Amino acid sequence: MRRRSSNYNTGVMASSEDQLAAARTRMVRRHLRDRGIADERILAAFAATPRERFLPPEKADQAYGDFPIPIGLGQTISQPYIVAEMIQQMRPQPHHRVLDVGSGSGYQTAILARLVDHVYAVERLDALRRSAEALLKELGIDNVTFSTHDGSGGWPEHAPFDGIISGAASPDVPVSWREQLVDGGRIVLPVGPAYSQDLRVVEKRGDRWIETSVCGVRFVKLIGREAWPQDNNDRP
């Protein structure tokens, strides 16, 4: 039997990469633009970010479906549309400094990094934090500072933030997040009981807080002092 050449293997790899790139383009069009994500900067950030890199290798072929995918340790990577909707609701600007709580795989963090000046990413599970930090470095993204700690208390050393976004659900908006937000800033997070939440936008306007419910969602719990207490089901 004749052995296949290395050129054959290279061709297969290139074909696979081309297919993933085409799937990413379709995802941006069908699941984001056609469903109301109108900010061209956000669409471009999704188009430039390879979601398959943030998944276990055996799940790479699912990367551009519009659904959440388990990534291990009891965590998931959120569906692209919900990530895009949350980011759009936060209204990121190039000069912004943003706190990303529950950064998980780093996918949302990577997209935010293409849209703002600096992202402060907090993840309570150190294995996920280390993996995400290494991957973003590989991708050449250098405007993110990572930490492993209880994100329900925010990150006071780097406050105030122009925006705070959470990839996990809290029973209410943590007080510390309100204290660490600039005037005019926005918090975007899922709020509600463990298995069904509202995606909520909380905007600071002087001494007033404007809260808006966007849609129903289901996220993993935000574990921490100002969110959900940890129980045995939450241990990785």
Automatic annotation (TrEMBL):
Pfam families: PCMT (PF01135). Its EC number is 2.1.1.77. GO terms for cellular component: cytoplasm. It is an enzyme of class 2 (transferase). The keyword Ubl conjugation does not apply. It is found in: Cytoplasm. The keyword S-adenosyl-L-methionine applies. GO terms for molecular function: protein-L-isoaspartate (D-aspartate) O-methyltransferase activity. GO terms for biological process: methylation. Keywords: Cytoplasm, Methyltransferase, S-adenosyl-L-methionine, Transferase. Belongs to the methyltransferase superfamily. L-isoaspartyl/D-aspartyl protein methyltransferase family. PANTHER family: PROTEIN-L-ISOASPARTATE O-METHYLTRANSFERASE (PTHR11579), PROTEIN-L-ISOASPARTATE(D-ASPARTATE) O-METHYLTRANSFERASE (PTHR11579:SF0). HAMAP family: PIMT (MF_00090). This is protein-L-isoaspartate(D-aspartate) O-methyltransferase.
